[in-house]
């Protein structure tokens, strides 16, 4: 199930270009490969590694909590129910299930948090653009809807610590997969990217010797790779993961290199929004997020919804 059209540019509150501006962001593995560091120009004489045969890799599960910084259990006595708000159509994060009830990664995570806090939990689905108004007018207590943290939203709501992010990655055809990608490896290579995106800005800043080709949308970008018009494409790793694993790709392509997570280009991350000043709930959710991750329940949820890891 591929992600919907949620967040297509940095001008929207939920840009697909979300990142995590935290110092300690770990990749909890099953096992995992480390997130690729922001690219830096390197010596031009370095030779690119040969394309490796594409083999099944262990699933990588992101974890954004430092086990050395375990939060203290807050006072939960004042919490009796948490009314979560989510949106109606952003699979696999939130959507209407076959039984008509809310479903998806965000919904299951919300229920896991309520189990950890030991309070009743409700989940109400609304159109994305109405969520913040519903929260601020006390029609719900928390928004868990893949909402990208931004300065504009911080002025209206408070956020928990990020619980996931959307890295950027390169995709190549399966017969040209590279285990690592560095700027010098792509010298003279044709790289497709969405014109005007943060991904394009990142390539222009870091991959100065690549031959960039801008495309108006994801469909045109991916078609260019399938047809061999470009050697690589670069973009949002979550939507690319679903494309790679879906029928539209025709099993043509695979990730090359690791994830790029530079927050200057790819944002602050995805958090749970609460009303301004509601520190009791915010701290309770932060504690519960850590506990859900520490117990392995976050990993179980991630593996259930993401058969191809974006990390």
**Overall mean confidence score, pLDDT:** 83
Uncertain parts:
1-46, 52-58
Biggest sheet strand order reads 4-1-5-12-6
What would the CATH topology of the domain at 81-165 and 268-305 be? Answer: D-Maltodextrin-Binding Protein, domain 2
Total helical elements = 9
What is the CA-CA span between the terminal residues? 18 Å
- Based on secondary structure, the structural category is alpha/beta
CATH C-level category of the domain at 81-165 and 268-305:
Alpha Beta
Q: In a few lines, what is going on in this structure?
A:
InterPro entries: Solute-binding_3/MltF_N. This protein is of the alpha/beta class and 311 residues long.
What does it look like?
The protein is built from 9 helices and 12 strands. With 311 residues, it is α/β, with parallel strands linked by helices. Among the domains are: 81-165 and 268-305, 3-Layer(aba) Sandwich (D-Maltodextrin-Binding Protein, domain 2), CATH 3.40.190; 168-260, D-Maltodextrin-Binding Protein, domain 2, CATH 3.40.190.10. Helix 1 (105-117) crosses helix 8 (279-294) and helix 1 (105-117) runs antiparallel to helix 9. The longest helix has 16 residues, at 279-294. The radius of gyration is 20 Å and the shape is elongated. The two termini are 18 Å apart. Residues 1-46 and 52-58 have low confidence and may be disordered. This is ABC transporter substrate-binding protein. Keywords: Signal. Residues 1-35 form the signal peptide. Residues 81-309 form the Solute-binding protein family 3/N-terminal domain.
């Amino acid at each position: 199930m591929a992600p919907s059209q949620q967040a297509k540019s940095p001008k929207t509150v939920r840009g697909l270009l979300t990142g995590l501006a935290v110092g300690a962001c770990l990749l909890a593995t099953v096992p995992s490969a480390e997130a690729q560091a922001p690219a830096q120009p390197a010596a031009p004489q370095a030779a690119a590694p040969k394309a490796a045969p594409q083999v099944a890799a262990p699933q990588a599960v992101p974890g954004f909590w430092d086990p050395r910084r375990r939060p203290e259990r807050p006072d939960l006595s004042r919490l009796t129910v948490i009314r979560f708000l989510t949106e109606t159509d952003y699979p696999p994060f939130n959507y209407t299930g076959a039984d008509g009830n809310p479903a998806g990664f965000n919904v299951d995570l919300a229920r896991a948090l309520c189990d950890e806090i030991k309070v009743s939990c409700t989940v109400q689905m609304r159109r994305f653009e109405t969520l913040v108004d519903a929260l601020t007018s006390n029609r719900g207590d928390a928004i868990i809807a893949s909402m990208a943290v931004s300065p504009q939203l911080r002025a209206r709501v408070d956020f928990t610590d990020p619980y996931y992010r959307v890295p950027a990655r390169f995709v190549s055809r399966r017969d040209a997969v590279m285990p690592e990608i560095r700027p010098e490896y792509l010298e003279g290579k044709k790289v497709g990217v969405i014109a005007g995106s943060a991904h394009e800005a990142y390539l222009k800043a870091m991959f100065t010797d690549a031959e960039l080709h801008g495309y108006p949308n994801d469909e045109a970008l991916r078609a260019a790779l399938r047809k061999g018009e470009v050697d690589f494409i670069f973009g949002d790793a979550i939507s690319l993961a679903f494309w790679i694993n879906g029928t539209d790709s025709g099993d043509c392509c695979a990730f090359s290199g690791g994830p790029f997570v530079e927050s200057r280009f790819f944002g602050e991350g995805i958090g749970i929004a609460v009303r301004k000043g509601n520190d009791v709930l915010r701290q309770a959710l932060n504690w519960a997020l850590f506990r859900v991750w520490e117990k392995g329940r976050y990993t179980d949820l991630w593996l259930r919804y993401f058969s191809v890891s974006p990390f």
